[in-house]
Amino acid sequence: MRYLLTLIVCAALGPLLSAGAKYVRDNPDCGDDAIDACGTEFICFGHEPRLPENETHLAESCKRQLKGIDCANEYSERCLLGFFRGSAVTALITLQEETERKCDATHPDHKRYLKSAPCLNKAGDRIHKCVHNFRDDLYRIALKAPPKQKIRYACCEYSKMYSCKQTSLTENCKDPKAIQYVRESAEYVLHNLVKVFCGRYESGSEECNALDKLPALDANENAPKSFILLLKSFAAAVP
């Protein structure tokens, strides 16, 4: 989830640092289909509710994940512009490094991952739903929230998603080492960065509760599966 959190920071800060700038190169090879083709398997619990639990399945998953990361990175280098490009590339490089450590049989994180995966999968269905709901909520904010309020809504929804994930872990995975493995990821570092940026706009706060409830998405308004496309929609909608 480190990749996702880095892009959340990008979506929040990009419009502030690049007002009026274009985010995507005007090129026929840079359409939405190009990034959709990269898939979503490299998003932990974003693609499906289970992680691979043995060497064989992990090796197969690693090939698909690294291929998807390479595809997304090539798209970002070729098509994205300015702060959004830099943030996406940074997020993908960070994700690639973390994935390579997990996939390298000689690295300590490889064994830690395999020992942790069965317990993490006990929370997999709920975490997958947390991520899926956040994707829909962020897209709803991009389309429905007042322009000057979008970042505040996004902060509240991110906080709700983060709490949802942590609750899912503590209630379903009882292995302290598995939970510690998750807590040592850079997700927690980035979470603190998002908290500083969002300030008092946390799920359940008076500030979040004071925001008007947004209308639901229309039947034909489906959130993109790719978080790059999703956050591109969000960033483009912020003045």
UniProtKB/TrEMBL annotation:
Signal peptide: 1-21
UniProt entry keywords in alphabetical sequence: Signal
PANTHER family to which the protein is assigned, alphabetical: RE45066P, RE45066P-RELATED
Entry protein name: Uncharacterized protein
Lineage: Eukaryota, Metazoa, Ecdysozoa, Arthropoda, Chelicerata
